[in-house]
Amino acid sequence: MKFFFTILILLIYNDILAQGSDANAILEKIKKSKEDTNRVLAYVEYGQYLENRNLDSAAKYYLKAEALSSKLDYPTGKFKFRSNYTYILNLQGKFEQALRLNNESLEIARDMKSPLNVGKSLANIAASYTYMGNFTNAIKFYQQSADQFEKLDQKTFLPRLYVNIGTAFEHANLFNKSLIYKQKALRLARPMNDSLQLADILTNLGGCLFNLKKYEQSQTYYLEGLNVAQKIGSDIFVIQAYGGLCRTYRGLKKLDKAREFGEKGLELARETGNVFLEMECLRALMFVAEDSNQPELSAKYTGEALKIAEENEMTDHLVELYEDYATDLARRNNYKAAYNYLLKYAILNDSIQGIDVQKQLQELDTRYLTAQKEKQIITLEKEKQTRNTLIYGLAAGLIVLALISALVYRNITIRKQIAENEVLQLQQEKQLVATNSILKGQEEERTRVARDLHDGLGGLLSGIKLTLNSVKGNVILPEESAMTFTRALTQLDGAISEMRRVAHSMMPETLVRFGLIEALSDFCEGISSSGQLRVTMQDFGFDKRLDSSVEIVLYRIVQELLNNVLKYAEATEAQVQLTRVGNNVSVTVEDNGKGFDVKSLDQNKGAGIRNVQARVDYLNGRLDIQSTPEEGTSVLIEIVV
């Protein structure tokens, strides 16, 4: 189950640095100042000092700043109030109210014509959407904010912004994408000497690694984050580290240490009034109790966490809690209530963390990264143009000389290449003409020999058979001579059949008279009837016959391929497919035999494959052989007629 123990830090006025200020000095400033803008700023500064110690007290001073800012019509004070107060509202689970104030702060920043404040407001709006479970809008506003700060070269805000973007992706189950942004944030933050920001990023990274089940790495970051947070007295990140260590030690099967840190975090969260972190600590302890075989205690923690999430409409956390509470109800045999909570979980989970939302987030991130790369390319192009102008100005003569030399060399090289290509082309054409002549001569000779065998020798043998049959009926022979005579007639029948088979193999009569499809059908049926191989044939689009020379070559190709199957493939089945669409003809021969490594053809092509390739080249076609050991072979021939 995923874990979101992260606080989205709003981009408030870091120049005040109230976290390290002296409380008495700030209070003295408030006491001595008049009811003017200086007192507004002092109220905000003291609120920032208190927010990691007591949220209610911090909220009190922020509200004082707002009241005085409204009285003085002081835009900066109004903006600072909203930027800081919405942080407290989020920790209290009042997300809708925080979003409304963040939208107001954006309008104030635009009226002030302050690009920096606009960037902060955009990031704060994104944080509100993240808490509310609207991750598509969250990423969109974070990217707008990042663009704003990069335009202003305000790199101090980028680490925290990248953490928040990573958190939004984390809530959408895109943990690896989240890790990229959070690691990027840590690299930028370490040299900045901002302990509060560093504590935030370290604990966030710990949570991200926990979700990726990298518990040892998660523990390292949480312990470092806890150390930093304790040094600066930041209760929020101390609680966040405690809760994270509770989860991590549970993952490492160290339940006693997990319980110790979880209880510390819960106690501190309740002391500071931080309901958000209180809920997360309750959930962490819930899992520890479950692993410790304490179902009643686990159910107690779950119920308390669910109550907080429902009261504060923490949409994303409700998803997990509905599932957890359904499990607890089922343990107590309350299956009807468990089913209802599982139904709530399914509906809410689909609306927040479904595939479509993840896809939208991925697309937003891709567009953002693409825009960033385009900006980098434009910047690099400008720098390149500046450098090139300087180089061209200083070395114009050398460049001209180099260009002339390059052109001469290029001209010589091109002429040489053209000559080589022409020689190669002539050789190829010569080879093709020779091959075509050989193939044509072979087929003409096959046709002549087949005709002579069938019409000449075949007719002669048939005449001899008829003569002998007539003699047999008119001559009385001894029994032994009669048997010899009969045996001679049988051998004569065999000779006639063999002569016809040879003539048919050299040039099938069916091919000449009825065409390619009929001839191949007879050939496939002949192989199937032998019992060695079952061959099926399919054809499409052959309403008209092809040119006789093309039909003969295609017949020889299929004949050669099927003979190869019979000799080498050890197949039981083969399939022949012929398709004609317009002027495009394709032939496919497939078998279920033992196959082979196609790469071996590069070193050693057999005579059969060479013959097939030569015939395909004769037709100006394309040959494609696909085969894998033990998975059969498929040969595709494509030609244009």
Outline the structure in words.
It is a single chain. This protein is mainly alpha-helical. The protein has a domain at 511-640: Heat Shock Protein 90 (2-Layer Sandwich), CATH 3.30.565. It contains 25 helices and five strands. It has helices at 23-32, 37-50, 55-72, 75-91, 95-111, 115-131, 135-152, 158-171, 175-189, 195-211, 215-232, 235-251, 255-272, 275-291, 295-311, 315-331, 335-353, 355-394, 396-474, 479-506, 509-514, 516-530, 548-569, 600-603, 607-618; strands spanning 534-540, 573-581, 584-591, 622-627, 633-640. A five-stranded mixed sheet has the order 1-2-3-5-4, with helices on one face. A hairpin with a 5-residue loop joins strand 4 (622-627) and strand 5. The longest helix has 79 residues, at 396-474.
What is the CATH fold-level name of the domain at 511-640?
Heat Shock Protein 90
Say how many strands there are: 5
Sheet with most strands = 5 strands, mixed
End-to-end C-alpha gap: 63 Å
Total helical elements: 25
- Class of secondary structure makeup: mainly alpha
Strand order of the largest sheet: 1-2-3-5-4
Q: Indicate the proportion of strand residues.
A: 5-15%
Write the CATH homologous superfamily of the domain at 511-640. Answer: Histidine kinase-like ATPase, C-terminal domain
User: What's the alpha carbon Rg, rounded to whole Å?
Assistant: 43 Å
List the secondary-structure elements in sequence, H or E: HHHHHHHHHHHHHHHHHHHHHHEHEEHHEE
Helix percentage range: over 70%
Mean pLDDT: 80
- Overall geometry comes to elongated
Report the CATH C-level class of the domain at 511-640. Alpha Beta
Q: Mind telling me which CATH architecture of the domain at 511-640 this is?
A: 2-Layer Sandwich
Low-confidence stretches: 1-7, 12-20
Organism: Dyadobacter sediminis
GO cellular component, one term: membrane
Protein name: Tetratricopeptide repeat protein
GO molecular function: phosphorelay sensor kinase activity; protein dimerization activity
